[in-house]
Amino acid sequence: MLDRLRIGLDSLVGVFADSQWLFVLIIGASITLFFFAAFSIVSTIMNPVRRQMRSLSLVGDASQRKRSSDRFDNRLLSLSRLVLPRSEKEIYKVKKKLSLAGLRRDSDLVYFFLSKILLSLVFGLSTLVATTYSPDLPGVKVLFFVSLGFAVGMLIPSYVLDRKITRRKLRIVNGFPDMLDLMVACSEAGLGLNSALQRVCREIQYTHPDLAREIKIVNAEMLGGVDRVVALRGLSERTEIDDISGFVAMLSQSIRFGTGIAETLRIYAEEFRDKRMQRAEEAAQKVGTKLLFPLVLCMFPAFFIVAVGPAAISIIQAFGN
Asked: Averaged over 299-304, what is the pLDDT?
């Protein structure tokens, strides 16, 4: 047994005596440790418990930050006459998109148009400076590239806003099943609609903050005297999500006809589970088509280079001789 162990250790030392294998081992271990550390950091940051503890620890400084932010926003609002467009229709359209993205402050509108102006100037002037390094470039092409830079700078904020809206809708859709299950549990426990919404809002405010913020607005409107059906319709209009629109329509009919909310929620929960399963099956059917392009463009060329490359080199050398 000792002789076998000694032979094994000798062979291992002989393998690692080559500096090339040792270098490969160090690089592999370094990459593995790097990805493990990155995964640990990301999971720690995204942990809802740590997020809740961090928010509770920052409660004392919230008022100070809010006062400084309000002062800056008030200074920024003084530029609204210079930044905002004259068309009320365009302002309303942008306000609607900002609301879908969760940006509902008055200063957010000024931020959006100010970013458009600044980015267009930055890209346009950068393109103009870049064209000075090509003195042989015709004036028409210089004008075209500068105009293209201005256009790109104007389009970037709109693109970022659309992406933000899409991601926010996805977060709300992902949090909607949890909200629905909690609503069913609260309704079966005997809570009314207002109490159930308040309890659900407290439970999901750290795991799904976007959805909790919308439910909080509904609770505030109900406490302010707004009719429950009107407040629920406002939730549907602020999110523009089909699942929430169906949920609001179902609750509105239940309130109007006086039927039990618990039974209605249970039926809708079953329908939503079926719909979620259908979306999962649809996404699974698309995997094969989505994998086709990476395989053809990335995997197959590398495979053919490794498999056929040595044979092709040998054939070329043979015919060359």
From this structure: 82
User: Coil, strand, or helix at residue 149?
Assistant: helix
Residues in the chain: 321
DSSP 8-state symbol, 84: S
- DSSP per-residue string spanning 110-121: HHHHHHHHHHHH
Cα separation, 163 vs 211, in Å, equals 18
Q: ∠147-150-151 over CA atoms, to 5°?
A: 85
The ranges assigned to domains in the chain are 2-47, 71-167, 171-278
Q: Once rounded to an integer, what is the mean pLDDT over residues 47-75?
A: 55
Instruction: With H, G, I as helix, E, B as strand and everything else as coil, classify residue 157.
Output: helix
Residue given tokens 């950091």 in the structure block: 41
Q: Whole-number mean pLDDT of the chain?
A: 79
Distance CA 39, CA 42 (A): 5
Claim: this prediction has a pTM higher than 0.85: no
The dihedral through the CA atoms of 101, 107, 111, 113 has a sign that is positive
Per-residue pLDDT at 16 exceeds 80 = no
Asked if residue 249 lies in contact with residue 240, where contact means CB atoms within 8 angstroms, the answer is no
The CA distance from 112 to 193, in Å, is 37
pLDDT recorded at residue 66: 52
How far apart are the C-alpha atoms of 230 and 145, rounded to whole Å? 51
Phi, psi of 62 (to 5 degrees): -65, -40
d(CA 301, CA 319): 24
pLDDT of residue 167: 92
CA pair distance 219, 215, nearest whole angstrom: 6
Instruction: Tally Cβ neighbours within 10 Å of residue 268.
Output: 20
* pLDDT tier at 76, thresholds 50, 70, 90: low
Q: What are phi and psi of 102, to 5 degrees?
A: 85, 10
Residue type, 22: L
Q: Which residues contact 106 (CB under 8 A, 6 or more apart)?
A: 73, 77
pLDDT at 138 over 80: yes
